[in-house]
């Protein structure tokens, strides 16, 4: 199994976290350490990690790391020097090239999963490159009509119906066909990538108290409930819609394999409260596994040695378990 790790914005914490992760990966692969969730790699597992980025930059941000068992570098050259914490417009093209190299490897069957360190969307767009995020870029390059953002951490899996939309646009965006697309992808990838034979999915309502029988909004009655009923008839185990303010109570959410939230800030604050620093961002619906960290470029921490590598380690071990669910710590 081969994972490729794009090292992200060169001025941010991505390069140094990638080097730290490479050292940990060699120990994890050899069975000397466990992943943050306790997952260990069985002895003899063929597991490799390729860092995609400028080799000299990686050395400068973490010292020498060549010779680590199972680790190599797919070199992509910086356009300009990248001082820690200082964005350089010319390096935006470098960031895109690292992504393109990763995509080419999975498309060719030379890698099984992509793990991404954080990028800086603002500087990429300032350079004249249209880029709204990893998720959208990977979706476009893969040519798939829909992907689903799911974050994992703190004992929760939380997927989103809508992602980066202003709140006033959310109700109109939620339609029966959209819910069907999202839930089909979520159910299929929970089976394929997480080894869950019949996923049990809890669905949040949109409105407070899930609409209170129509007194606080009719989206549950007119859109969400009919869509869920049709999908249940197909055999998908759906529950709800539930009021989001009580669904995340530990004793209530525990029986479910995943929660489907209607919008970004309905589900993710709870998950990040439970797991920040060890959360993993996953893109479902791609023809390959893609995981990422739950944080940004942290320009103020770049080069200081104070950035926490925990989320990246978790993203790597999650990717391994998604490629081969039999390796999961929960198997």
From TrEMBL:
<comment type="function">
    <text>Catalyzes the NAD(P)-dependent oxidation of 4-(phosphooxy)-L-threonine (HTP) into 2-amino-3-oxo-4-(phosphooxy)butyric acid which spontaneously decarboxylates to form 3-amino-2-oxopropyl phosphate (AHAP).</text>
</comment>
<feature type="binding site">
    <location>
        <position position="272"/>
    </location>
    <ligand>
        <name>substrate</name>
    </ligand>
</feature>
<dbReference type="GO" id="GO:0050897">
    <property type="term" value="F:cobalt ion binding"/>
</dbReference>
<feature type="binding site">
    <location>
        <position position="164"/>
    </location>
    <ligand>
        <name>a divalent metal cation</name>
    </ligand>
</feature>
<dbReference type="GO" id="GO:0005737">
    <property type="term" value="C:cytoplasm"/>
</dbReference>
<keyword id="KW-0862">Zinc</keyword>
<keyword id="KW-0170">Cobalt</keyword>
<dbReference type="GO" id="GO:0042823">
    <property type="term" value="P:pyridoxal phosphate biosynthetic process"/>
</dbReference>
<feature type="binding site">
    <location>
        <position position="281"/>
    </location>
    <ligand>
        <name>substrate</name>
    </ligand>
</feature>
<keyword id="KW-0479">Metal-binding</keyword>
<keyword id="KW-0521">NADP</keyword>
<dbReference type="Pfam" id="PF04166">
    <property type="entry name" value="PdxA"/>
</dbReference>
<comment type="subunit">
    <text>Homodimer.</text>
</comment>
<protein>
    <recommendedName>
        <fullName>4-hydroxythreonine-4-phosphate dehydrogenase</fullName>
        <ecNumber>1.1.1.262</ecNumber>
    </recommendedName>
</protein>
<keyword id="KW-0664">Pyridoxine biosynthesis</keyword>
<keyword id="KW-0963">Cytoplasm</keyword>
<feature type="binding site">
    <location>
        <position position="135"/>
    </location>
    <ligand>
        <name>substrate</name>
    </ligand>
</feature>
<keyword id="KW-0560">Oxidoreductase</keyword>
<dbReference type="GO" id="GO:0051287">
    <property type="term" value="F:NAD binding"/>
</dbReference>
<comment type="pathway">
    <text>Cofactor biosynthesis; pyridoxine 5'-phosphate biosynthesis; pyridoxine 5'-phosphate from D-erythrose 4-phosphate: step 4/5.</text>
</comment>
<dbReference type="InterPro" id="IPR005255">
    <property type="entry name" value="PdxA_fam"/>
</dbReference>
<feature type="binding site">
    <location>
        <position position="134"/>
    </location>
    <ligand>
        <name>substrate</name>
    </ligand>
</feature>
<comment type="similarity">
    <text>Belongs to the PdxA family.</text>
</comment>
<dbReference type="InterPro" id="IPR037510">
    <property type="entry name" value="PdxA"/>
</dbReference>
<keyword id="KW-0460">Magnesium</keyword>
<keyword id="KW-0520">NAD</keyword>
<dbReference type="GO" id="GO:0008270">
    <property type="term" value="F:zinc ion binding"/>
</dbReference>
<feature type="binding site">
    <location>
        <position position="264"/>
    </location>
    <ligand>
        <name>a divalent metal cation</name>
    </ligand>
</feature>
<dbReference type="GO" id="GO:0050570">
    <property type="term" value="F:4-hydroxythreonine-4-phosphate dehydrogenase activity"/>
</dbReference>
<dbReference type="GO" id="GO:0000287">
    <property type="term" value="F:magnesium ion binding"/>
</dbReference>
<feature type="binding site">
    <location>
        <position position="209"/>
    </location>
    <ligand>
        <name>a divalent metal cation</name>
    </ligand>
</feature>
<feature type="binding site">
    <location>
        <position position="290"/>
    </location>
    <ligand>
        <name>substrate</name>
    </ligand>
</feature>
<dbReference type="GO" id="GO:0008615">
    <property type="term" value="P:pyridoxine biosynthetic process"/>
</dbReference>
């Amino acid at each position: 199994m081969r994972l490729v790790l794009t090292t992200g914005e060169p001025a941010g914490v991505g390069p140094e976290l990638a080097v730290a992760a490479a050292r940990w990966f060699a120990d994890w692969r050899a069975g000397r350490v466990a992943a943050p969730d306790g997952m260990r790699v069985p002895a003899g597992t063929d597991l490799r990690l390729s860092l995609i980025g400028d080799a000299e930059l990686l050395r400068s941000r973490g010292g020498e790391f060549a010779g680590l068992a199972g680790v190599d570098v797919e070199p992509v050259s910086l356009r300009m020097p990248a001082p820690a914490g200082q964005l350089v417009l010319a390096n935006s093209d470098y960031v895109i090239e690292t992504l393109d190299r990763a995509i080419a490897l999975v498309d060719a069957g030379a890698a099984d999963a992509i793990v991404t360190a954080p990028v800086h969307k603002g500087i990429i767009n300032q350079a004249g490159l249209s880029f709204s995020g990893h998720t959208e870029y990977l979706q476009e390059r893969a040519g798939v009509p829909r992907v689903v953002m799911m974050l994992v951490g703190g004992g929760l899996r939380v997927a989103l119906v809508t992602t980066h939309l202003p709140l006033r646009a959310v109700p109109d965006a939620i339609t029966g066909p959209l819910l069907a697309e999202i839930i089909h992808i979520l159910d299929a990838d929970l089976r394929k990538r997480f080894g869950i034979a019949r996923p049990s999915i809890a669905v949040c309502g949109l409105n407070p108290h899930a609409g209170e029988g129509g007194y606080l909004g009719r989206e549950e009655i007119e859109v969400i409930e009919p869509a869920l009923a049709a999908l249940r008839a197909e055999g998908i185990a759906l529950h709800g819609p539930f009021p989001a303010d009580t669904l995340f109570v530990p004793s209530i959410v525990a029986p479910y394999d995943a929660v489907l939230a209607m919008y970004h800030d309905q589900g993710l604050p709870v998950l990040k409260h439970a797991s920040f620093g060890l959360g993993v961002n996953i893109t479902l619906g791609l023809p390959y596994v893609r995981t990422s960290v739950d944080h940004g470029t942290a320009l103020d921490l770049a080069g200081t040695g104070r950035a926490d590598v925990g989320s990246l380690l978790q993203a790597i071990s999650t990717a391994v378990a998604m490629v081969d669910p039999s390796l999961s710590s929960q198997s």
